[in-house]
Amino acid sequence: MSETTTSPAAEGAGGPPSEVAAPHRYTAALAADIEARWQDFWESAGTYEAPNPSGDLAGDSALTARPKKFIMDMFPYPSGAGLHVGHPLGFIATDVYARHQRMTGHNVLHTLGFDAFGLPAEQYAVQTGTHPRVSTEANIVNMRRQLRRLGLGHDQRRSVETIDPAYYKWTQWIFLQIFNSWYDPEADAARPIDTLVAQFEAGTRPTPDGRPWGELDAAEKAGVLGEYRLAYASDAPVNWCPGLGTVLANEEVTAEGRSERGNFPVFKSKLRQWNMRITAYADRLLDDLDALDWPEAIKLQQRNWIGRSEGARVDFPVGDDKITVFTTRQDTLFGATYMVLAPEHELVAGNGNGSIVPAAWPEGTHEVWTGGHATPGDAVAAYRKQAAAKSDVERQAEAKDKTGVFTGAFATNPVSGAQVPVFIADYVLMGYGTGAIMAVPAHDSRDFAFARAFELPMRCVVQPSDDRGTDPATWDDAFASYDAKLVNSSGAEISLDGLGVVEAKAKITDWLADRGIGEGTVNFRLRDWLFSRQRYWGEPFPIVYDEDGVAHALPASMLPLELPEVEDYSPRTFDPDDADTRPETPLSRNEDWVDVELDLGDGNGVKRYRRETNTMPNWAGSCWYEMRYLDPTNADAMVDPGIEQYWMGPREGQPSGGVDLYVGGAEHAVLHLLYARFWSKVLHDLGHISSSEPFHKLYNQGMIQAFVYRDSRGIAVAAAEVEERDGAYYYQGEKVSRVLGKMGKSLKNAVTPDEICVEYGADTLRLYEMAMGPLDVSRPWDTRAVVGQYRLLQRLWRNVVDEATGEVTVVDTEPDEATLRALHKAIDGVTQDMANLRFNTAIAKVTELNNHLTKTTGPVSRTVAERLVLLVAPLAPHIAEELWRKLGHADTVVHADFPVADPAYVVDETVTCVVQIKGKVKARLEVAPSVSDADLEAAALAEPAVVAALGGAGIRKVIVRAPKLVNIVPA
Fold first, then answer.
1. In 125, 171, 346, 552, which residue has its Cα 20 to 30 A from 748's Cα atom?
2. What number of other Cβ atoms are within 10 A of residue 335's Cβ?
């Protein structure tokens, strides 16, 4: 069909085409009408509602006849700023994929909820006095409106909000399952805590002090079980942020040692906090990555974060105590000439009054070891305070000046018997190993630098492979090698001299184990998950404490434990630089809620208890939301087992089960994704779900970026008001700089989807975001380029509808062969692109087909028009529905069959064969793709140009690579 005539403005370069043309032209106004009508239709008809199995799945023939597909986006947070055009990129992509899956016969579950607890709403409440629920729910309403306008095909019946008590009832229930569980190494799985109690009662597992279980009082029993529970409270080093008044997870602290939110200083401090024993699952979290269809970069991040390393535990006696270290180089034990503890280590904790810190400096203590302090206690206390002001990253960074202080204590090297001084230094962290190291300065660069700074002895125990000799005093740096032989490593009971590293490791490990002073072990970088927050806006812990301080779980009948009303939503904040302060939570101020009398159903009747006044972190609700999508209204269970098995259970190619496609940002690699995997494994072990992994296939979408314009002060200015002149950029007459960065309200470069929908329509926005480039690559937003996809839809409309009359123009005649080939090649290409999330190339193929029809003389064949509409339907569903209805179909296009390509038309009718003589092209032949070698050779030799080029010369050899090449070698 030929193009209709439009005004010059209609085809102009900037902005949408002029809307002064024919009355039935596809315009922004018509798009808005079409989109609103079809969105209302989909909602009223329940078009996107995915049925669940009922009862015996085998009896659900309508379901079992179709394969299922569970597609998810990462949980969005309902920001008060609403969406900008960067936010829906992943949402549109999963919607396109879900629509294609429906059209290829799948029962598709696709919905979206809101991860609505967290600090932003609480900070807004502190500033305005507005209850966090009020502002959060208002934000959700606005976000739902924006998402609906994009035509996203979500099953709204399944949408959840983490702040809904009916939802967080089950978050609390899951916490109690974890609290009431322990990790059984023999079963390599979590088991109910009652099975551990039974072992203690039967005497098959001894208590720590050997007393019978029945002789322990309630507090003692609770203390023993707390060492095993998967959710436990302990006094542990935490990231204390006085400026926010709360404790932060490691992942919420920047590399500069400041809070992600507010940029306040963060200090190391010991507080009683709830933790999740995720370390018990370290091996399984590592091993099970292999079966997941995830980007290798994300797997690598998780492997590095878990950080598995094999080595040995070694005990160094110190007075009546001992220092335990973990080392991967136990073969160098003879070279350990001093020890270093983390400043937070329990043996020096308590401001210098720890168990190994003496009252006075030992006689002859080197002046440089004391830090200028009169006593070891003073030195340790001062250094611990100094170290608390640094982040872990700062402490681990290579620094020219090594800092530390002598504790005044000496430990005994267990192989040599030598007395080695014990220091504290900030380059040793409590978060790795045991928080203590044996320093072998001759063979570790950091230890070497520390030893030089503090004039400590060094001993070479690994033979250098260069000519430096074996006296470290003459070296410029340490010598490290895993291939060299051991030297200077002989004692009264064992000698490692002459052995290689592997043999020496094995020998010393056995020697340590035989004497009960060490053993081979595996260590992990992963630490237990800090699970407490000193905030109001989070899930309350379903835990109460009795008068002895023993924690008790609330019975399930008391869930949900809802948040009470409070007058002040903020935790008490302090001087940001005062590391010695302690948190005070908003919940602790509501004494009527905190102090309660309850009958917990444990046979003890009504007793007085005190509630836990911390709340769960904002990660809690997102650890399991995929399961609630499956069965969101179930009041009796987190999810019905049969429903979970249907949507997420293990199956061929997915041995661990999980969501079929999960799309979101790569920034959650070691936070949400690791936590969710942990919760799934615990729930799987306890028999609540069949899937041991939450997400089988993960896809990380890129980011939509935008130009940020800054004035001479470095302040961002409104991007929409910036003018470009002669390659420079000006804001209100002042020249400004331009860099590509994030899009956001604070950078004054945000473009809302509402703006684009008003100017062009939602289908145009959808197409533009999908056409900008590969989904997993970041790309810059350019509002001026949106018009290209708008014109594509206008041409599509014109190929079906007469702009003057509004009548359908297609004809019931068969298309010509060229059009059939263009059609089926497009179908074949789009089908492959949809399956592989290559939406930008799918749009290119649709555009190519549509342009072919536009250039064709006469009206479009109905056969071609209908299939073109079906190809467009996942990408631009509103215009597809409208055209599908105009083409005479009563049913929605959402559930129509996606077209299937005819292979006969996908293969090119002819291909070009190059004929060469002595490597030079002499002719080109158009031949059938299926031509045989013999026929192709005959055709090439008969070609007049080839005959002339040979000039009667004989032929020594003909090389044929049908159908594209013939190479003739003359005699």
1. 125
2. 27
The Cα diameter of the chain in Å comes to 113
Per-chain mean pLDDT for the chain: 92
- Cα torsion 81, 84, 88, 90: sign: negative
> Cα–Cα distances in Å, from 466 out to 427, 469, 470, 569, 678?
29, 8, 10, 65, 48
Backbone dihedral angles phi then psi of residue 47, each to the nearest 5 degrees: -60, -35
Walk me through the domains of the chain, giving residue ranges and CATH numbers.
1-45+753-905 (1.10.730.10), 173-303+529-611 (no CATH), 308-524 (3.90.740.10), 704-741 (no CATH), 911-970 (3.10.20.590)
Residue pLDDT, tens place only, 300-318: 999 999 999 999 999 999 9
pLDDT digits (tens, 9 = 90+) for 43-96: 999 999 999 987 554 456 666 678 999 999 999 999 888 999 999 999 999 999
Q: Is the backbone peptide bond immediately before 963 cis, with ω within 30 degrees of 0?
A: yes
pLDDT, position 746: 85
Question: According to the model, what pLDDT value does residue 6 have?
Answer: 40
Torsion (CA) 395, 400, 401, 402 in degrees, nearest 10: 50
Q: Are 908 and 963 in contact (CB under 8 A)?
A: no
Task: Render pLDDT for 495-543 as a digit per residue (tens, 0 to 9).
Answer: 999 999 999 999 999 999 999 999 999 989 898 998 998 889 999 999 9
Return the structure tokens found at 805: 């009359």
DSSP state of 587: G
577 vs 143, 242, 267, 468, CA distance in Å?
Answer: 38, 7, 9, 48
Q: What is the 3-state secondary structure (H, E, C) of 414-466?
A: CCCCCEEEEEECCCCCCCCCCCEEEECHHHCHHHHHHHHHCCCCCCCCECCCC
Look-up of token digits 């080695």: 420
Q: Within a 10 A sphere around the Cβ of 9, how many other Cβ atoms?
A: 14
Using the CB atoms, write b or e for 220-233: b if 16+ within 10 Å.
Answer: bbbebbeebbbbbb
